[in-house]
Amino acid sequence: MINQTCAPALRRSCSILALVASLTLALPAGAFAQAEVQTFEIKAATTAQVLNEFARQSGTQIIFDHDIASQTVARSVSGRLTRQEALSLILAGSRLEIARQTADLIVLKVKGSPAKPEGAGADIHAPVDILEVVVTGTHITGAPATSPARSVSRGDIERSGYGQTGDLVRSLPETFSGGQNPGVLNNPVGSNINLFNASTVNLRGIGSDATLVLLNGHRMASEGPFGGVDISGIPLGAIQNVEIVTDGSSAVYGSDAVAGVVNFVLRKDFDGTEASVRLGDSTQGGGFSQSYSVLSGKTWSAGHALASAEFSRQDAIAFAQRDETAAAPAFNNIIQPYERKSVFIAAGQSLGDRLELSVDAYYNTSDTDQKSQSSFSATANRNGLKVTTWFLAPSARLLLRGDWTARLDTNYARARGSYTIVRSNGTRSMTAMQSVTQYAEVTASGTAFTLPTGAVKLAVGAGYRAEDFNRVSSTLVYPWRTDRNVSYAYGEVPVPVIAPSASRTGLNELLVNLSGRSETYDHFGSASTYKLGVRYVPLPGLAVRATQGTSFKAPLMNLVSSPPGASLYRATTVGGTGTGTVMFKNGGNPDLEPETSENWTFGMDWTSRRDRPLRISLTWFDIEYEDRVVQPVVPYTQALSNPDFAQFVTVNPTLAEQAEALAQAFTFNNNTNGLRYDPANVIALVENRNINAAGQHIYGLDMSVRKSFETGSGDIDLFLNATDLTIDQNTVPGAPTTSISGVLFGPPQGRVRAGATLSRETVTLTGTINHVSGASDTYVTPVEHIGSWTTFDLVLGYRPGWTGALREVEATLAVTNLFDRSPPYARGGGASTTGILFDSTNTTAVGRFISASLKKRF
Fold it and tell me: What distance in Å separates the CA atoms of residue 534 and residue 29, rounded to the nearest whole number?
């Protein structure tokens, strides 16, 4: 809901911060003290299973060696205990002990480390998977998830064989590879092109600007004009896990979280130094890549420090090197050559028992030599792209009474991109863009009071965010700059309706979570959102969850600030008759309002009660996405002939209406081929600026299955992730509904990624099947079918266990598209660039790609 307001942003922010402080101080003293002990109900099982349940019930994140913990049995834990008392009971008789702990993190180690533990392939220095305690999607640490969420662990990353963060994300079935992503050679009309060779996260295929991307929980600045955050510079070797919430989350995080949230969590608890090199090449020629990285970290009783540096270089794959593009202008590249450097630094220190200070810093720069020529007769352009992104995020965490904590998070993020175009006709131009995001946020969370069913947690917070977008060009003299200020407040409260009890079949647990947020913008007013979540556990191991809520996305600053213009056409050019002319209003629109959505999810998570459990997750999702910003009259040649566009046409505009349109326009283009502008000859005025007009209905099903078991040949881990997706769209109100999924250049209706990992002593072997469903080629008449595409990847990892100077060496051989499958034929693939005969948004012509990496820990 949008409400107009004119109160000064700074005054609003100070008022909100004062309100949060007063709420925190007003809580009764008893509310703080009650959380020193809590109720635990954990049945006896393997130590690994009991630690899982302990982490969930205590709201604590734990890192431990799962293989070691699975070898012993822990006793049941029942009653009101402190966290330390419960953990002591669980670890008694196990081979694990506490290495370090904070208020919300416990790291366990094998007793007597650094000696190597027993067991096939066990290695205490190997990456360990963080427990699946979801911290993304809620302000309350360890709160049971009501939203659908998944975590890509460090182990999953290493078994994937990918060398770049963007490749890892694009492999996930919930994401779409089109839009602002490398290798996309054609885009549908009106889509957001990839100006800077970026990699972005596009959940559900509804736009990279509708997915909120976080790095260690911090917002990053968007790159370019279309709102996508470039993740290509995030060093893959420094990622601990990737947390993904596939549900609208504006009630928790504010603008942009319509499709969900992706949080890249980096490896803060890393001791030692790790150096790696990765080389790769395609077997069909071109695309040689190299990457070098160093990761070094140190942890101590009161803090940690980590630094990561990465350098990567990618060679081009030319159109002439692949059959699928051999008929296109040879000047183009399928893969653009680039060079990238990135650095990440994280540090934290506890000052006494109550105060923790931390800082995250990130820097990335890349240079790309891009070539483009849309047809053999078109001008050939060579673009020099340069991108620099960075952020600095200091934070402070204060332990208050009981389990209450207060956090102060600050952040300054900037992304700057420029491109210099050198054309074959000798002309040259330069354009540069910069986005800046900075904010300060205060959050207080803890136990507000206790019901007979359990503790009621509460999180309240407020903040202030400033955003700035600036664009300059050598070919356009216009103040293409805008800024906006945002103040916000939020709250979240999970209420235990039925206390956990493993002995109460059918009513094991019931939790209701309510969160709300209000953001006030100095441009368009305020946007208020909410989310209601329910988590019902009928029996141990089975959780049924549902959410319903609203989300929004603030209008892109590029669309608000871009120069307004006017154009003149002959009436016959735009679907009319006669000798008259038609004036179009186009360009930016400062009156744009937020895009809004209503989100529903319903799903279940099942974990069998075994040493090696079967995990199954199913989620139905439904998004009604309204007020999407579009240029409404597309194609413009049907402005007067298509009845759907009548609502944007003013017939026989008055002289005053024409004068107003011209007064607002920075540019005026006469496209009549010889006619002069004559107000008396203008028969229609067309509103074709960007406006809030389109609506989308996005719905489908996500499925995840995982199971591991032991055989005589080694341990086997099976996994499957699949998504079925439908997107129906009304471009303008009253227009027929069309499907933009399952068509050329659109998100596929089905994606599957499934495979198995065999681990035996020092060797791991992972095979993965990737499937993209078939589609309809709507860019040709009659419509043609595009076949499905299935590829197979193979990753071999080897840890020889050598001693001396070669100890802790690891080698990996990865083959992507092992059988060198070509992308399915799509005749309409050359819609905007002649001769491309496949769908480059969902498939690739790279072919088989082989990479080898070597890693050494010191």
Answer: 29
Among candidate residues 426, 301, 419, the one with its CA nearest the CA of residue 352: 301
Q: Is the link from the previous residue into 747 a cis peptide, with omega within 30 of 0?
A: no
Distance (Å, rounded) from C-alpha 501 to C-alpha 496? 12
Closest to 249 in 3D by CA, of 542, 655, 553, 589: 553
Phi-psi region of 205 (alpha: psi -120 to 50; beta: other; left: phi over 0): left
Domain count, the chain: 1
User: Which residue stretches of 28-136 are H helix?
Assistant: 29-33, 47-58, 66-69, 83-91
Q: Which residues contact 320 (CB under 8 A, 6 or more apart)?
A: 326, 330
Q: Could you tell me whether strands 260-266 and 211-215 are parallel, antiparallel, or unpaired per DSSP bridges?
A: parallel
| Burial class, 84, CB count within 10 angstroms (exposed 0-12 / middle 13-18 / buried 19+) | exposed
Residue 381 lies in a domain: yes
Spatial CA neighbour of 233 closest among 414, 389, 346: 389
Determine the pLDDT at residue 192: 63
Separation CA 64–CA 70 (nearest Å): 11
What's the Cα-to-Cα distance from 194 to each of 175, 370, 808, rounded to whole Å? Answer: 16, 11, 40
Pairing of strands 809-816, 317-318: unpaired
**What is the C-alpha to C-alpha distance for residues 574 and 576, in angstroms, rounded to an integer?**
6
- Cis ω for the linkage preceding 173 (within 30 of 0): no
In angstroms, the CA 168 to CA 153 distance is 12
**Integer Cα distance of 521 and 8 in angstroms:** 10
Q: Tell me the residue range of the domain where 597 lies.
A: 149-555+592-634+690-857
Write down the mean pLDDT value for the chain.
86
3-class DSSP assignment, residue 738: strand
pLDDT given at position 29: 34
Indicate whether 91 belongs to any domain.
no
The closest of 754, 602, 617, 587 to 686, measured between CA atoms, is 587
The answer to whether 215 touches 221, Cβ cutoff 8 Å, is no
Task: Supply 414's token pair.
Answer: 């900037």
Q: Which segments of the chain have a pLDDT < 70?
A: 1-37, 66-67, 70-71, 102-104, 112-135, 142, 187-192, 610-611
Concatenated DSSP letters of 497-566: EE---TTSTT-SEEEEEEEEEEEEETTTEEEEEEEEEEEEEEETTEEEEEEEEEEEEPPPHHHHHSPPEE
Among 382, 373, 380, CA closest to 325: 373
Amino acid found at 640 = L
Q: Which candidate, 527, 543, 526, places its Cα nearest to that of 535?
A: 543
Query: Is residue 769 in a domain?
Result: yes
- pLDDT value for 283: 97
d(CA 746, CA 547): 27
Query: How distant, in Å, are the alpha carbons of 187, 280, 441 from that of 184?
Result: 7, 21, 37
Using DSSP, state whether 173 is helix, strand or coil: coil
Burial 795-815 (b: 16+ CB within 10 A, else e): bbbebeeeeeeeebebebebb
pLDDT tens per residue, range 410-464 = 999 999 999 899 988 888 999 999 999 999 999 999 999 999 988 899 999 999 9
DSSP 155: H
Q: What is the CATH number of the domain that holds 187?
A: 2.40.170.20
In a domain, 78, yes or no: no
Rounded to whole angstroms, how far apart are CA atoms 262 and 219? 11
Q: How many CB atoms sit inside 10 A of residue 499's CB?
A: 17
pLDDT value for 668? 93
* Coil vs helix vs strand at 460: strand
